[in-house]
Design a protein that fits this description.
Largest sheet: 6 strands, antiparallel
Number of strands: 10
Helix content: 25-40%
Order of helices and strands: HHHEEEEEEEEEEHH
Distance between the termini: 35 Å
Number of helices: 5
Structural class: alpha+beta
Length: 217
């Protein structure tokens, strides 16, 4: 294959990606980040401070009132550990598709790591504790507390820390399958926690298939 043909194929592929990314992908989103922020704030105002489990149920119930069966019912049995970017926490998958995921994520004892570089926008709504963020070149941390929203734009890089107990509602919108290697690499090549790997792939795959069967991609 000569370079001319290769350049034509590459141009077609890049043009298709640009079209899908700019005009198709945004039409697949079902979640409104502002609506989620309102749900988080209203839930924090409703649930007495310190009862994190009640807060999970409250937020999940409000989400199901707005988004119906696109949200998995909350239960404490379906949490799983997650190691990514040198940070460790746990997560509960409320929704997953090829264009979005919505999870509870956090840690009871604190963690710190690299955000990763993702082809998606990430919205991190703090529910309990605090998230500290380091932007390159800024000697002072940005601190997000309950009710605050930390937005990590696609392609951006930060260092983040949850110094102590911290939990959040996290929404990602973009090319979700491309984020999976970041979410699974530490488990496969570092911790070797195959039980968590199996659990993660099962619940993620199950949620994505269920979304596809509902026509939500």
């Amino acid at each position: 294959m000569n370079y001319f043909k290769l350049s034509i194929i590459l141009g077609v592929v890049l043009s298709a990606y640009y079209y899908l990314d700019k005009y198709v992908l945004p039409t697949l989103y079902i979640f409104d980040p502002e609506v989620l922020h309102g749900i988080v704030k209203d839930s924090l105002a409703t649930v007495p401070p310190g009862n994190t489990t009640a807060l999970f149920y409250e937020i999940n119930g409000r989400l199901r009132n707005v988004y119906g069966d696109n949200i998995n019912p909350y239960n404490s049995d379906d949490w799983m550990f997650n190691n990514a970017g040198n940070a460790m926490g746990s997560m509960f998958i409320q929704h997953a598709s090829i264009s979005e995921y919505l999870i509870f994520f956090g840690t009871a004892i604190g963690t710190e790591g690299h955000t990763g570089v993702h082809p998606a926008n990430d919205y991190f709504y703090i529910l309990k504790g605090a998230q500290w963020v380091h932007d390159l070149g800024d000697p002072d941390p940005i601190i997000y507390e309950p009710g605050d929203l930390h937005i990590l734009k696609r392609g951006s890089v930060q260092q983040y820390s949850m110094p102590t107990t911290c939990f959040a509602l996290e929404l990602a919108q973009g090319w979700i399958p491309a984020m999976l290697p970041f979410g699974l690499a530490d488990t496969l090549f570092s911790t070797l926690d195959l039980g968590t790997f199996a659990r993660t792939t099962y619940f993620t795959g199950k949620a994505m298939i269920e979304s596809a069967l509902r026509g939500k991609f």
